[in-house]
Amino acid sequence: MNETKRIEVLKVAAHPVRIKLLEELMKGVKCVSDLEEFMEISQPNLSQHLSALRHAGIIDFFIDGRLRCYFLRNPLIPDLLEILKKDYPEELPGPECCPVTKKGTYPHERRR
Questions:
Q1: pLDDT tens-place string over residues 42-59
Q2: Antiparallel, parallel or unpaired: β 59-64 and 67-72
Q3: Domain topology for 3-85
């Protein structure tokens, strides 16, 4: 997957409802009726989110009779969701000085 495709995946996935949908699809194939019960949004809104994810190649579906069942396609999603679950207690430290001139000071309070 090239960088442009990865950026597109991030753009499309970066929505709270879509993250919640992807987390649910991580558990396995889900039919629309399953997702409707789980999500607290209208069916048309759910369909819009599923369509956006599908057009970006993040998910796909198969049809079983009258049921449309969705599943994950993009291999980046499990890693992305894992990163989003991580707890980062501290920010990265600022530099002691300018790495080029070796002068100057960091103007903000240091956290240690």
A1: 999 999 999 999 999 999
A2: antiparallel
A3: Arc Repressor Mutant, subunit A (1.10.10)
3-state DSSP assignment of residue 33 = helix
Distance, CA of 105 to CA of 94 (rounded, Å): 10
Class of residue 35 by CB neighbours under 10 A (exposed 0-12, middle 13-18, buried 19+): buried
Residue 4, both tokens? 């442009």
Q: What is the pLDDT of residues 56-112, one digit of tens each?
A: 999 999 998 999 999 999 999 999 999 999 998 888 887 888 888 888 776 766 555
pTM above 0.70, yes or no: yes
- 77 alpha carbon, distance to own chain's centre: 6
Cα–Cα distance for residue pair 40/4, rounded to 1 Å: 32
